[in-house]
Design goal:
The complex is a heterodimer. Chain A is an alpha/beta fold. Chain A folds into two domains: 141 residues, Rossmann fold (3-Layer(aba) Sandwich), CATH 3.40.50; 154 residues, Aspartate/ornithine carbamoyltransferase (Rossmann fold, 3-Layer(aba) Sandwich). Chain A is 40% helix and 14% strand. The longest helix of chain A is centred in the last third of the chain and has 20 residues. Chain A is globular and about 55 Å long. Chain A starts with 12 loop residues before the first helix and ends in a 7-residue tail after the last helix. In chain B, 29% of the residues lie in helices and 22% in strands. In chain B, strands 1, 2, 3, 4, 5, 16, 17, 18 and 19 form a nine-stranded mixed β-sheet that branches. Chain B has a five-stranded parallel β-sheet with strand order 9-10-13-14-15. Chain B has a three-stranded parallel β-sheet with strand order 6-7-8. In chain B, helix 1 packs across helix 2. Chain B is globular, with a radius of gyration of 21 Å. Classes of the chains: A alpha/beta, B alpha/beta.
């Protein structure tokens, strides 16, 4: 396994299965009354969140604490970066205090990659700009496997604002590595540039027609659509978006019985996902949140526990 | 003061001796046989190609305002090392070069350092704001005799402002050098060529069309006004097509390309290293090939470095927040030698054309870009065409280190530079 987790490309199939396997035992711990494991005692993890986050930051914090690491949180608004300090100075300053791991959320694509070149500590990408969000892809895979079993040959649709989604990019890599067949669905304005050649070289499909894709999928992953995209002219109105690309009540009915629904949150109910779909028995939305802590415990364990440590 | 250059290969067309007296070429031929009187200095140019001193249409010297990144003196030194005898200093300093006084100040500081002729470029609009014309006429009438105007770093986005600027400068034979970037199609965050890699990396895309629509608009404005327009740092195959068409129509358009757009490609951004962040961005190999062909066939008139020094800490941000730009003065000739001469796309006469003759003509610099002939000013560059250099950013005389060529092996290097008969560089080092 690579030293850092900057991109899902850092993990091969074996690595992913190892992380998801450990996550299962972590999930058991999570359900216990006493949740502490001594695994990372004496290790220090810094959560540096230069961008707002509720679920990712709190789940990384809980994951570190339940593994007995010393965890501190630094948020962007109060950090030196907003005073004009360079990112390099900010992270090297914190690293100089003696930190074992950095968990980094940043609004700029590539920031964790750059940080990994400036510090000796392990760097975990907790979401960088519109680039990647590897632990989200891992917890999505974990949640899908809980319901669907092995993802080899399964068909997954990823629908929504693909251009601006780091969840998309990590999931494309993760799902392909696990052998799933992916179709990405969006209006042309919300497709990343160069997606046609990208799809060809990586072996996934693209579609503008949600209804044509729906009947054959085993999982449908709805991505959040930022309302401010309308002012950018990416689509005309919310109503038109929902009619074309929302998981509406009607579309919910056309799903196969075993098909699961995912959303990384926070959801815009009524825009990209109807309340009936978000709360359906097929919905994994809360399972994803629950899996988030277990998967992040597993990632911290694999990257930060020394040789011979047992979970 | 007299100086003899022995055995230089003049533009690659044959070895001759050159006698220089008081800054002027006074003799060419086999001068030993002519019973030479004693000279003050002799340069052995055995194996070296002699070119007219190089001229750079596009540098950023950062003075006034950011003297920690570069000064007119340090930039002049980098230029001399690179074989240049004249450079144009872009207007986007602090304060902006938008008055006669500011332009004269740059001219004077250049003369003080004395290593190259530093010719100020004037801003097209006040403060580069793109709204009101700067004092174009006063800059033209000043001691600096400004003829090239540019808001470089920004596009003159308003078509009406561009039209008026082009019309106005006809009175004194000026030219607008356009930074072609439609700000609606590529805003200030755009930093990676828009394509598959920008999609994968999640970096804001800078689409080729944002350059091409401005090039197309500007050549039509040049036709409408009958004025001269120059396109700075052309980076796309589509721009080349438009310029080729415009020239065929007889429109007064000229264009430059940077060494980095002739060699470096988008894929270098995969590691998010801001050293490779430049505006316009590095493009895919298809564009690079089109630019090489256009430079060879004359569609693109000149090579210009867009030398853009930055203090280290201005590059040590996230990719989308780091400063745009890369060093270029010291390595330009080596890159052109490697990529254009090494592939037989240009001979040495062709290098002289694109790095000296045409840039001097576009800028209206009378004493530069001249033939190597008796009676001409002795602005000369001696190049070792077979020397293989490995670029070391620490060896630079620039104050900055944002050098994308670090570690690369390039064939061809500047050995000597003479400004009006006075050596500024000998054996590859400042005199």
């Amino acid at each position: 396994m690579n030293r850092h987790l900057l991109s899902m490309n850092d993990l091969d199939r074996q690595d992913i299965l190892a992380i998801l396997g450990t996550a299962e035992s972590m999930h058991d711990v999570q359900r216990r009354e006493v949740k502490k494991l001594p695994t990372l005692r004496g290790r220090t993890v810094v959560n540096m969140f230069f961008e707002d986050s509720t679920r990712t930051r709190s789940s990384f914090e809980l994951a570190g604490k339940w593994l007995s690491a010393d965890v501190i949180n630094i948020s962007g608004k109060g950090s030196s970066t907003s005073k004009g300090e360079s990112l390099r100075d900010t992270v090297r300053t914190v690293a100089a205090m003696g930190v074992d791991g950095f968990v980094i959320r940043h609004g700029a694509s590539g920031a964790p990659h750059q940080v990994s070149e400036w510090v000796d500590a392990v760097v975990i990408n907790a979401g960088d700009g519109t680039h990647e969000h590897p632990t989200q892809a891992l917890l999505d895979a974990y949640s899908m496997r809980q319901r669907l079993g092995d993802l080899e040959g399964r068909h997954v649709a990823i629908v929504g604002d693909l251009t601006h989604s780091r969840v998309l990019r990590s999931n494309l890599i993760c799902l392909r590595t696990l052998g799933a067949h992916v179709t990405v669905v969006a209006p042309p304005t919300l497709m990343p540039s160069g997606i046609a050649t990208w799809a060809k070289s990586e072996g996934f499909d693209t579609s503008y027609d949600f209804d044509a894709v729906l009947p054959t999928v085993d999982a449908v992953m709805m991505l959040r659509v930022q309302r401010e995209r309308m002012s950018g002219g990416f689509f005309p109105t919310e109503r038109e978006y929902t009619v074309g690309y929302g998981l509406t009540r009607e579309r919910l009915r056309s799903l196969q019985e075993h098909t699961v629904i995912l959303h990384p949150g926070p959801m815009n109910r009524g825009l990209e996902i109807a309340t009936d779909a978000a709360d359906a028995a097929q919905s994994l939305v809360l399972d994803q949140v629950s899996a988030g802590v277990a998967v992040r415990m597993s990632v911290l364990y694999h990257l930060l526990a020394g040789e011979g440590t047992v979970a | 003061m007299s100086l003899l250059i022995k055995g230089a290969d003049l533009l690659g067309a044959g070895r001759k001796d050159l006698l220089i007296s008081d800054g002027v070429i006074t003799g060419i031929g086999s001068l030993k046989a002519a019973g030479m009187r004693t000279v003050d200095q002799t340069i052995d140019a055995n194996g070296l190609v002699a070119l007219p001193g190089l001229v750079d249409l596009h540098t950023h010297l950062r003075e006034p305002g950011r003297e920690d990144a570069e000064t007119i003196a340090s930039g002049s030194a980098a230029a001399a090392i690179g074989g240049f005898t004249a450079i144009l200093a872009m207007a986007n300093t602090t304060p902006v070069t938008d008055t006669a006084e500011a332009a004269e100040r740059i001219l004077d500081l250049g003369r003080l350092s004395g290593l190259v002729d530093v010719q100020p470029v004037g801003a097209v609009t006040k403060g580069l704001a793109g709204e009101e014309l700067a004092e174009l006429g006063l800059m033209a009438r000043s001691r600096a005799r400004v003829r090239v105007f540019s808001d470089d770093g920004r596009c003159v986005a308003d078509a009406r402002v561009m039209r008026r600027a082009l019309e106005y400068i006809r009175a004194f034979g000026g030219v607008v050098s356009e930074h072609a970037q439609d700000p609606k199609l590529a805003d200030h965050k755009a930093c990676c060529h828009e394509g598959e890699l920008s999609g994968r990396l999640g970096l804001p895309g800078w689409p080729s069309v944002a350059e091409e629509v401005i090039v197309a608009r500007d050549v039509m404005l040049a036709r409408h006004t009958g004025s001269r327009v120059h396109i700075a740092h052309v980076s796309t195959a589509g721009s080349v097509e438009v310029i080729r068409w415009a020239k065929a129509q007889g429109i007064s358009v000229t264009a430059e390309v940077t060494p980095h757009h002739l060699m470096l490609t988008t894929d270098l951004l995969a590691g998010y290293d801001p050293t490779f962040k430049v505006n316009p961005p590095l493009r895919p190999i298809e564009d690079v090939e089109a630019l090489r062909a256009a430079l060879a066939d004359g569609t693109i008139d000149a090579v210009a470095t867009d030398h853009a020094p930055h203090a280290r800490h201005d590059k040590e941000h996230t990719f989308d927040n780091a400063a745009f730009g890369m060093l270029g003065l010291e390595t330009a000739l080596s890159v052109i030698s490697d990529v254009m001469v090494g592939s037989d796309r240009l001979d040495w006469a062709g290098v002289a054309r694109v790095m000296s003759v045409q840039p001097a003509r576009i800028a209206g610099l009378a004493g530069h870009g001249r033939p190597i002939a008796v009676g001409e000013p002795a602005n000369l560059t001696l190049v070792d065409p077979s020397a293989v250099v490995t670029v070391d950013r620490e060896a630079s005389v620039s104050l900055s280190r944002n050098n994308p060529w670090h570690g690369r092996r390039l064939t061809g290097s500047v050995q000597a530079t003479l400004l009006r008969g006075v050596p500024t560089v000998l054996k590859g080092a400042l005199v």
